[in-house]
Amino acid sequence: MFPETKKGWTVVELVVAGAVLSIVFLVIVRFFSLSTKEVANQQRQTDAFEKLRQVFFVKMEPDLMEANQIETAQSQRIIFITDSNRMPQYDPDGDLDGDGISNLVDPDDDNDSSLILPPTAQFQAGYDLKDDDEDGDGKIDMQVCFYLTGGVLFRDYSYDEEGWGKHIEKLLDGVTYLNFVYWGSKKEDLGKNIDLGEDGEPNTGDEDEDDGLISATEIDMVSPPTGHGNRNGSLDTADELRYVVSVYAEIGYDENGDGVEDARLKTELAPPLLVLKTRQ
């Protein structure tokens, strides 16, 4: 004979089964919740990094790549002179000097490359790559500043030395980190003899001595006659700033304002005109 078949569930079994199902359901809900949150986090980080890329490569790089002279070199502020083609009213198809050659392809927009001026005024003449005064008013055509304040990255520019604060543009809100680092080069005459490490002295066993890199510290610490540093911890003189041939930038960004950094961009630029200016 077959044993008697059980026809139903007891209350205890129903309670246990319900508890088990509840646990399974909670685990499933938790899994999908975490998965959804992780996907959202990844998407936010991707969006944040793309926004950083847009800000840097669309807004900042075009100016920085035309820099021919660094004027202020701080970790969260950089001011530099740019080529005249960054002027707001620059017309690539125009003909500033009326010689029949458009500005875009004319190596000397204002036709003053043969002028010989005193050293203090030499910036006003020459070919475009050296001439900072294409409109002939005796003033620097275009200076640009990028700076961080209150978590906001700004761009400002000064046209014809009009002063700062008239053309401020907010580039990005929610910036958690900004650091500009400045480098020289042993390939250039100014950098050949100052690869002396953090102490700026030769033959001291400094691990950074003769490492092939010219850091901002070395530029500042190597004093005359070998270098032009003043040993005050910053690049703040014209002679020191002439050593700079590349700029490293690092920017962090918190897209949703929750206090957690979502993306960070690191890049280095070597504006070709910086080197040209130091060879004058």
Quick recap:
The protein is α+β, with helices and mostly antiparallel strands. Helix content is 25%, strand content 22%.
Question: What does this molecule look like?
Answer:
The chain is an alpha+beta fold and 280 residues long. The chain has two domains: 11-87 and 141-185 and 245-278, no CATH class; 88-138, no CATH class. Helix content is 25%, strand content 22%. It has four helices and nine strands; from the N terminus they run αβββββββααββα. It has helices spanning 11-64, 216-221, 238-241, 272-278; strands spanning 67-73, 77-82, 142-149, 152-159, 169-173, 175-184, 214-215, 246-253, 263-269. The chain has a five-stranded antiparallel beta sheet. A four-stranded antiparallel beta sheet has the order 7-6-8-9. A hairpin with a 3-residue loop joins strand 1 and strand 2. The chain starts with 10 loop residues before the first helix and ends with a helix.
Compressed to H and E, one letter per element, the order equals: HEEEEEEEHHEEH
Tally the structural domains.
Answer: 2
Poorly predicted runs: none
Spatial order of strands in the largest sheet: 1-2-3-4-5
Computed structural class = alpha+beta
